[in-house]
Amino acid sequence: MINEVNYRVLYGDTDCGKVMYYGNYLRLFEIGRTELIRSAGISYREIEEKKGIILPVVEVFAKYKASAKYDEILTIKTLLKELKPYKIVFEYKIFKDHQLLTEGYTVHVPINKEGKIVRFPEDLYQLLASLLKK
Fold this sequence. Notes:
The chain is an alpha+beta fold. The protein has a single domain, classed as Hotdog Thioesterase (Thiol Ester Dehydrase, Chain A). It contains 3 helices and 5 strands, in the order E-H-H-E-E-E-E-H. A 5-stranded antiparallel sheet has the order 1-3-4-5-2. The termini are close together. This is Thioesterase. Belongs to the 4-hydroxybenzoyl-CoA thioesterase family.
């Protein structure tokens, strides 16, 4: 399943040349994965508060192909690439119209509130796995 979210580049997202600052693409990755997870029927907040799981980023990759500029509307396309009992990988593509601007991925591990890596709870694992099947 690929989830799509539109985002308008804010002035605060840009550098003095009104080009989107490279680090802000990682925030767009976060928006994409948050909405992808929400489309499965659970929010990040519920994962943290009800399941006691935090999903820190342990690896990130981004490849920049073209620049986004102030006030442009971007489309963030996100999919769940891989799910293991101790790891989850999201893949992202950011477009302006049909032009690919940036692509990348993030790797996350489930940890408990004490900072220890734990298995995904089975019900959460199955819910996330449903994103692989769509």
